[in-house]
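Pilot study result, target chain (199 residues):
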Amino acid sequence: MKSKSPKVTFSNKAKLPTKYGIFNLVSFKSEEDSKEHLIVYMGELSAKKGVLVRVHSECLTGDVFNSLKCDCGEQLEASLKMISEKQEGVIIYLKQEGRGIGLFNKVNAYALQDQGLDTITANHSLGFETDLRNFDIVTNVVDFLGIESIQLLTNNPEKIKTISNVTGKLNSVQPLRIAPNPHNADYLKTKKTQLNHML
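Predicted structure:
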């Protein structure tokens, strides 16, 4: 059963030329808050089944500054490549930095991680739950694009369950496994052992 989705306003469509090809770009925002999100997609997706969909929460440090502390930027890049190769798919880019705690608190959490805390314990030490993200708005995007069913690009079992419930259109899942480096090996281990990510 689909959960209730928020009322959403979509911008006009524009072209986004990238090194992976030319994508379509649409911004959208919910009436419930002031957050502005993005849809980056390729192909005619209306009535299509098994469309590649990456629901990606903003990670400024990883997506923009190529941080090695996480695998976010690499997952985003891998998704763009996969969509480009198929010439079809969508990235739903949500403004939910630091699993929903925001950039300011994320940096504070990073400082605690520098002292030896893992990513989950650091968030808890700041008074936050493990994950504060909300994906209800994803159903608005899927319906806006007319997608019939999706192939979700994720390693996160909770996201799989949530997106399935929110959209009612989950067809299959494609993990995005990224090789660890010395800076994110413990982070990935935490996601695997404590959050059951498919790594």
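One observation from the pilot: The radius of gyration is 17 Å. A full batch analysis is planned for the follow-on phase.
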